[in-house]
Amino acid sequence: MTVHDLFRLSGSATPTKARAILDEVCDHFVEHAEVRRDGDTAVLVNALGSARLQLIDGRIDIELACQTQAALDLSRNVLAEHMFYFAGSDALGLVWRQPPAPGTVANLHEVTVISAHAVTRNMRRVVFSCADVTPFLTGDIHVRLLIPPLGREPVWPGYRDDGRLDWPEGEDALIPRAYTIRSVDAAEGTLAIDFLQHTACDTPTPGADFARDARPGQRAALLGPGSGGIPHAPSILLIGDESALPAMARIVEEAPEGTQLTAIIEVEDAAEEAYLPGRPGLRVDWLHRGSDSSAASHSRLIETARPAIENAGPDTFIFIACEKQDVRSLRTILKRRGHDRSCVYAAWYWER
């Protein structure tokens, strides 16, 4: 960003533990932005723009700068959502010099189901039409799918005054779930999302249910894209389970030519191996857990990934996506190794 940025916004947060919130923001966004920290001041720069946060007398003063109003709205929303998340049950006040404009959010895209079919036994693909697929062609690959109640006209979220999303409630309540955009067809104006079908799960699976029952003409919406773009590094190490297969497949297909790719992937059995496309320079270590989905069965993923992480070169990008506790264990290994945080994406996709 430069001094010629056209859209700026200031705000002020008053958390119960201001320094802890600033620390959390810097620690989290190092995987998603360039973070420069100098004592009580932090500057975050990413594709949307820049954010300057300064700790003063127990509050955090915020200055945002972006090249479009839409990017400014998104930056405010991203920062607000994360600050409230980091605050947890502690009180947090957040005010902006100018509150968000009414109406739906800047990065919401209405989509319509075109078709749905099985890709493998446990993966089902839904193809959507979208009026403008341009935002999904490059950059981040994750979105939040918003599933409206059947038989009702969808009501999409707007913004609260503090910048967070204002979700519809009651009979209009939406079901939001995070997914990877598997592919985009610019010529056809379509995009595809692959949904893992949970064959042995005793908890609700609304995303998988939506994909299983999807019919042409059904309406939904996507928030995003955001986070987890295609890494650009001479070497990429992919670690995860079948929940990460769509993201891994997208990376395998779109990583620059000549990239050395190594993957360690835990799946139920060999039937799921057909999902991942092959390419020169790709080596895959498949781990089959069978029908055992207990925590003990997942230790094999961690133990197999440990030496791969410890032996990875300093310029290797490490992509990790799997169960929450497994991600925490793998992050501990990364921290001990001291791997460059800007060369890491580590996110939990589900919780055991």
Describe the structure.
With 352 residues, the protein is an alpha+beta fold. It has three domains: 7-96, Alpha-D-phosphohexomutase, C-terminal domain (TATA-Binding Protein, 2-Layer Sandwich), CATH 3.30.310; 108-227, Translation factors (Elongation Factor Tu (Ef-tu), domain 3); 235-350, Rossmann fold. Helices cover 22% and strands 37% of the residues. α5 packs parallel to α6. The longest helix has 19 residues, at 69-87. This is Siderophore-interacting protein. Pfam families: DUF2218, FAD_binding_9, SIP. Residues 106-232 form the FAD-binding FR-type domain.
Strand and helix layout:
Layout: E1 7-15, H1 18-29, E2 34-38, E3 41-45, E4 49-56, E5 59-66, H2 69-87, E6 92-96, E7 108-120, E8 123-130, E9 142-147, E10 158-159, E11 165-166, E12 175-185, E13 190-196, H3 206-213, E14 219-223, E15 235-241, H4 245-254, E16 260-267, E17 282-288, H5 295-310, E18 316-323, H6 324-337, E19 344-350
Parallel strand pairs: 15-16, 15-18, 16-17, 18-19
Antiparallel strand pairs: 1-5, 1-6, 2-3, 3-4, 4-5, 7-8, 7-14, 8-13, 9-12, 9-14, 10-11, 12-13
Helix pairs in contact: 5-6
Protein name: Siderophore-interacting protein
Family: Belongs to the SIP oxidoreductase family.
GO molecular function: oxidoreductase activity
